[in-house]
């Protein structure tokens, strides 16, 4: 049953909400009859097909305040959109209000202080473009179209996390519009509990309108390994990679993918879409002898099908995989944190991969540790500091008729890997809305109760309750 405190009473209230927003916002207000409605409600994951009552495209923080005030008065279900790239599609809701921050893309870099203030509609590609003008970077995601907001609020995995930490670990402060319509700055000294919750606690704390990140000297060029190996050696490669990852320096974050050879014009056509094992890592420092030495164990796991390693612009590296995850295709991802990657787990992983439904589907093994583990377990809401690996089962497909098969494969593979899990799940790879109840404790671990208290303190009437329930 819907929560009546979060549901508008009908068409009259919906019209009143739209009228109030149009009279108070500088940005565009899009209702069901607007010609741009279908485009505005679409998100990256084509599996998500939700129909909000109204979308408030906020031009700035003042618009966000007005949208929150309207929501307090009319009590719709509320969702918040940043980049709109999250797998579960939590950016949009049915029959409610979407507070859409995507027009808010300002980025200001202070090279002397090594900080950047970025609005919450910014994507990592847009952020990197600005910071790389000064040879600076904050650890972001692996797909440049991903928004900075959703990734950071959930923790923030990326190619640099063992060197510089998660995205959320690099947040100096945030601007948040809380449920009472107040604009708050959250940082170590001011609103420290809100600051704690925003770094890994996911949704439901309010509307974050901007982030201040600490930056690190990196780029404009970096050295990286990307080696494609024959799938026939997958078990041997996984074991060798696991052993190399265990002793890898913190200057690299080893990653292994079971996937298909991409249909890239630079790759011979007869190799396209063949199963392969991809090994990747980025050196979190300047190119040179140190980079080559740190990356050598990742590059020397055996004769590859193709070695694409080298020195490349950081912005090119960050955007290299974006084309393989195009807008509008269908995605389902679910993950486990793991303390060990034993031989039995490797065998199970390969068995799962052997049943994958489409060439777009893959399994990713990421390494943690390093700077991620050096942050105290209770310093942020991110609850999985001690894990050594994250294994993500990622289904991708195009045909809606394949929905059941693709999602079924990912769910059954996740179930098969569960005996090897340390009990945790990464909130940004946590399935769809229907997975939320099952995974709540696994996502936030021992921090769940503290998060609930913090949300209640800043949102006693539950304006963002529905957002907090979503993965």
Task: Kindly describe this structure.
Strands 12, 13, 14, 15, 16, 17, 18 and 19 form an eight-stranded antiparallel β-sheet that branches. Helix 11 runs antiparallel to helix 13. It is globular and about 65 Å long. The two termini are 19 Å apart. Helices cover 31% and strands 21% of the residues. The protein has three domains: 97 residues, 2-Layer Sandwich (Uridine Diphospho-n-acetylenolpyruvylglucosamine Reductase, domain 2); 136 residues, Uridine Diphospho-n-acetylenolpyruvylglucosamine Reductase, domain 3 (2-Layer Sandwich), CATH 3.30.465; 213 residues, 3-Layer(aba) Sandwich (Vanillyl-alcohol Oxidase, Chain A, domain 3), CATH 3.40.462. It is of the alpha+beta class and 471 residues long. It has 16 helices and 19 strands. Strand 5 and strand 6 form a beta hairpin. Keywords: FAD, Flavoprotein, Oxidoreductase, Plasmid. Its cofactor is FAD. It comes from Streptomyces fungicidicus. GO terms for molecular function: FAD binding; oxidoreductase activity. It holds the Pfam family FAD_binding_4.
> Looking at CATH, which topology of the largest domain would you report?
Vanillyl-alcohol Oxidase, Chain A, domain 3
Report the end-to-end length measured between terminal Cα atoms. 19 Å
How can the largest sheet be summarized? 8 strands, antiparallel
Number of helices: 16
Q: Mind telling me the CATH class of the largest domain?
A: Alpha Beta
Q: Approximately what portion of the residues adopt beta-strand conformation?
A: 15-25%
Overall CATH architecture of the largest domain: 3-Layer(aba) Sandwich
Tertiary shape: globular
Q: How many discrete structural domains?
A: 3
Structural class: alpha+beta
Low-confidence stretches: 1-6
Helicity, as a percent range: 25-40%
For the secondary structure, the number of strands is 19
Average predicted confidence as pLDDT: 94
**Cα-based radius of gyration, to the nearest Å:** 22 Å
